[in-house]
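Before a colleague's protein record goes any further, I have to sign it off. What it holds is a sequence and that sequence's fold in token form. Would you go through it and say whether the fold makes sense for this chain? The record follows directly below this note.
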Amino acid sequence: MWEGDTTQHNGVTQNGMCLHVGNDRLGSPVFIVTVRQNSPKLRSEANAEKLAAYALEKAAQLSRKYGEEALIVYDFAGFKLENVDLGFTKLIVTTLQELYPLTFTATLLFVNSWLFSGFWRAIRGWLDPAIAQRTVVVKDVQTLENFVDRSQIPVEMGGQNKYEYSYVYPTKEGNAKMFDTEGRQAAEAEFAAAVSAFVEQTKSWIDGSGPATHDAKLRSQAAAAFDTASANLDPFIRAQFYDERV
């Protein structure tokens, strides 16, 4: 559907709840989640699952353009009792740990709310040890600068980045490839061939039917071809994210 993120319930993109804003000191994208914009009363459990999938997959998709990793910052400024949603938080944590364990180099919790301590006590037991080690509570911009240069940190968080969010709606023209049936079929054929080649090279690599270095090299080449085919197919089957439109 070319309408893309406009179909997301609760206006998650329209209100800028989860945005790519700048890069960290390693050059990876920084995703800022403004927790005070979370409104659990306005969505169903099914919509919460869609929102979790959308937010994490968006971050994963965009991070692949920068070397597979990203930094995520949860901004708790203005966090109120009405924003607390333990069920949704557990869903995010579970999905992150099971499907995206290596996507984020770190998770920063930028805290400026008296409610946070109780919230943190409730959720930290859900984190597996690997994720917990990469989760850092940050209480001021000076500490945040260890991860992100001040020029990349939004002004409202104490930085110098004067980024102003203004939602840009998707258009048919911007997602023109979604209407190109012939092009999509060609991209699908390329993708199917890449999948098959990767599976076969992986089997050969596991079986050790050839020289180890040779099999590993062929598998790496097949993986690279798979990545290319995936990227080529993507615009035919997925509408652009807001971050790709601006």
Summary: The beta strands are 18-23, 29-34, 70-75, 104-110, 135-138. The longest strand covers residues 104-110. The chain has a mean pLDDT of 85. The two ends are 19 Å apart (CA to CA).
